């Protein structure tokens, strides 16, 4: 029994896809897609040299284009600020006079201890302030 070339390419694609799942190496997935392109070429009647050229061209193109894009995305990190980082830049309302030595604000529905960024500045109750930093459990405001 003679197996068509496209079947061998699909077997190769699956063989590259299994380690992709086990190791999470995206390059293996790109090679697997190249093998599928080789299978399509074989299914359309392309000779062996053309199949290998298509496999190599698709694989190299994917690695050259997709890999740098993925690396940039990974380096940027998450775009959604959470936790303390999400509180920076928010507006709060002074509940108890805030100056360089302390005070209280209402920030995101909770009462926080706060102190003024400029130690000479003070903010009275009811005044809106901007949170510039969180230092432990104290909001630094201006």
TrEMBL record:
Gene3D superfamilies tied to this protein: Nucleic acid-binding proteins
Protein name from the UniProt record: NfeD family protein
Assigned keywords, A-Z: Membrane, Transmembrane, Transmembrane helix
Localization annotation: Membrane
Database matches in PANTHER family: INNER MEMBRANE PROTEIN YBBJ
Main location: membrane
InterPro entries: Membrane_assoc_protease, NA-bd_OB-fold, NfeD-like_C
Lineage of the species this protein comes from: Bacteria, Bacillati, Actinomycetota, Actinomycetes, Kitasatosporales
TM stretches of this protein: 6-22, 52-70
Limits of the NfeD-like C-terminal domain: 84-141
Topology term for the membrane: Multi-pass membrane protein
Entry annotated with the keyword rRNA-binding: no
Organism for this UniProt entry: Streptomyces longisporoflavus
Keyword flag rRNA-binding: no
């Amino acid at each position: 029994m003679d197996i068509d070339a496209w079947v061998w390419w699909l077997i190769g694609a699956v063989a590259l896809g299994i380690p992709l799942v086990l190791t999470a190496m995206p390059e293996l997935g790109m090679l697997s897609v190249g093998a599928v392109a080789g299978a399509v070429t074989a299914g359309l009647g392309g000779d062996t040299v053309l199949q290998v050229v298509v496999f190599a061209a698709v694989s190299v193109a994917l690695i050259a284009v997709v890999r740098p894009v993925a690396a940039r995305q990974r380096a940027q990190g998450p775009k959604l600020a959470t936790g303390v980082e999400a509180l920076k830049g928010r507006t709060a309302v002074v509940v108890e006079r805030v100056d360089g030595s302390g005070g209280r604000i209402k920030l995101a529905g909770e009462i926080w201890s706060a102190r003024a960024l400029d130690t000479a500045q003070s903010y009275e109750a009811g005044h809106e302030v901007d949170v510039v930093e969180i230092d432990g459990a104290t909001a630094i405001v201006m």
